[in-house]
Amino acid sequence: MDEHYDVIVLGTGLKECIISGLLSVDGKKVLHMDRNGYYGGESASLNMNQLWEKSHGKEKKAPETLGSSRDYNVDLIPKFILSSGLLVKMLLHTDVTRYLDFKVVDGSYVYSSGKINKVPSTDTEALTSSLVGLLDKLPLRKFFIFVQNYEENNPATHDGLNLKITTMDALFKKYGLRENIVDFIGHALALYLDDSYLQQPAHDTIMRMKLYADSLARYSKSPYIYPLYGLGELPQAFARLSAIYGGTYMLNKPIENIVFDEEKKIIKVTSEGETVTCDKIVCDPSYFPNKVQKKGKIIRSICILNGPIPSADKKFESLQIIIPQKQVKRQSDMYVGVMSSAHCVCPKGKYIAIVSATVETNEPEKELAPAYALLGPIQEKFVYISDFIEPIADGTADNVFISKSYDATSHFETTCEDVMDMYKRITGKDLVLTVHPNILKQQEEAGNQEQEEQ
Q1: One MF term from GO for this chain (predicted)?
Q2: Domain boundaries defined on the chain
Q3: Which of 380, 240, 409 is nearest to 320 (CA)?
Q4: Which CATH superfamily is domain 116-219 in?
Q5: 312 compared with 16, residue with greater pLDDT
Q6: Using an 8 Å Cβ cutoff, are 319 and 437 in contact?
Q7: Cα(350)–Cα(353) distance, rounded to whole angstroms?
């Protein structure tokens, strides 16, 4: 009889590996397969030979001037981690932090009037920031104090407003904040990709700003952290977690056939002539092209530099730049993430700048010109355009739960929101991001064993 699993996960992208880890910790019997021979899928980190081969084909070799291939760990999907954000909570929920080392990102900038400025995020910084004009300093300080004091369940901190009804646009107008200030608050602090949030209730934006401030308070340099050796470490860490709790992993496993029974309750999956069954499938969009829809395109440009970018503080070995849509006459923001050897992603003396944006014209790379202008001389460039894909259905009818593609944002909040939504659809319950009881039990058992050995 075919071996049966509660869940089969296809693809080892970050979202799929997080789900695999979460379900394994929950006690589910999980089989995880990938047609590729490496972890990460679309969200992998590649060495220079792999990156060069992906871009130029196997017949060409990366030039020696780029340095040693093994010194590179280049993210295909560049994102930073908010230090108080959802991904950190997931890492703590599952104790995956023990497999990873992080380093704080040095700075966060926003593009305004043709140059970049450090993002002010407190009332004190607002008074000294060159981004904020003299007439804007006092209104902005008052607004920041309101945000700092806001408590969802304490009406005394609401300034007479119901922020679950009042729009963000109305709140900005109440405090007399002008368009350039609104621009950096919405895009560099609340981290929205476009301006649609302005007509939504203000509560969510205020909570996003508080998350940014909480994250910034942890390290003071910036609100972001980033793992040593690149984001490809994250899927592997969650895969290791799944394996500890009984998950089975198989790489280089092409999927030959997927068959549903008449009631769509038992699913047969065949790979290399072997068939197993499961109750549910979790996968990235590439495994079921007939069950997904294209919602746009994302362009990402990986740039290898010979030094820090001239427009930022030369001491910064890592930084983010957000280019709000209105500053460059677009419908959505552009993002630049800059990393160096400090995070073990490239040789010493080299820098990696990755530009990400939602495609809006028929000439996608031309759209990146404002970002390129900030980088200085570019030694090598790798440009990729990919479809942004979403599942057509939520998976509850046929038990196939498909993740969304990764968007252009420079952080993991939308990625984690998709994971939490998938988890609820798969299990029927909310993901509670406190330390999992099974993790606590394992930690206790490990502690007892260590005491016995001593």
Answers
A1: Rab GDP-dissociation inhibitor activity
A2: 4-45+232-292+391-442, 56-106+296-388, 116-219
A3: 409
A4: Guanine Nucleotide Dissociation Inhibitor, domain 1 (1.10.405.10)
A5: 16
A6: no
A7: 10
